[in-house]
Amino acid sequence: MKILIVDDEEKMRHLIRLFLESDGYACIEANDADSALDKIEERPDLILLDIMMPEVDGISLCRQLKTMDPALPIVLLTARSDNETTIQGLDAGADDYVTKPFDGNVLLARIRAVLRRSRVVNLQYGPLRYDEESGRILYEEQEIILTPKATAILKLFLQHPNRLFNRLDLYDLVWPYSAESDPRTVDAHIRMIREKLGDAGFPIDDYLKTVWGRGYRWTEERSG
């Protein structure tokens, strides 16, 4: 198992690495968001992500990473124990969090628990599925080609059935660092999802619902 440690403090990364390697994990390190995104190419099995980092904080980075790969386990490291920070981190998609200073054995136990839970991810609705390994969307084994942003939106829907996403939610999750500021672009990608899946024969209108004035929701079971 390979773990990516993302923390701007070198001493903290070294300490965490000692704990993890003593338990048999391989480790890679990053000191900021940019280097963490580069290290993703090495396909870590889990990310330990510090919240308090310069420029791009850990919660914002967590949102982007979960958009790229909803199944990638992320454990947040935080020096803040207030409820608001915890809620923000979990809402951003984090699988768990550990408060600094921490006991090494507690950290290892949390990591093992998250890895156990992450082994099964349901991103399949009947014959429609998102293939985690290849990144392909398949319906009755035919591939549906979407743009990367439309794919990211569909993955969010599949990852969070029955959750209502408003337009701004989706924009912030899929375009977290965009210089543009027009959440209406989300609507164009939703139309693409409807069109492409509908053309493939998937009953998209039974699953992807528009809640007028509020946003979009993927229903867990086919209606009708």
Tags for this model:
21% strand; 224 residues; globular; 9 helices
Tally of helical runs: 9
- Biggest sheet, spatial arrangement of strands: 2-1-3-4-5
Q: Can you tell me the overall shape?
A: globular
Mean pLDDT figure = 86
* Rg from Cα: 19 Å
Domain Response regulatory: 2-115
Protein name: Response regulator transcription factor
InterPro entries: CheY-like_superfamily, OmpR/PhoB-type_DNA-bd, Sig_transdc_resp-reg_receiver, WalR-like, WH-like_DNA-bd_sf
Organism: Exiguobacterium profundum
Can you put this structure into words, describing what you see?
The chain has about 220 residues and is α/β, with parallel strands linked by helices. It has helices at about 10-20, 35-40, 60-70, 85-90, 105-120, 150-160, 165-175, 185-200, 205; strands at about 1-5, 25-30, 45-50, 75-80, 95-100, 125, 130, 135-140, 140-145, 165, 210, 215-220. The strands form three sheets. A five-stranded parallel beta sheet has the order 2-1-3-4-5, with helices on both faces. The longest helix has 15 residues, at about 105-120. The protein is globular, with a radius of gyration of 19 Å. The termini are far apart. Keywords: DNA-binding, Phosphoprotein, Transcription, Transcription regulation, Two-component regulatory system. This is Response regulator transcription factor.
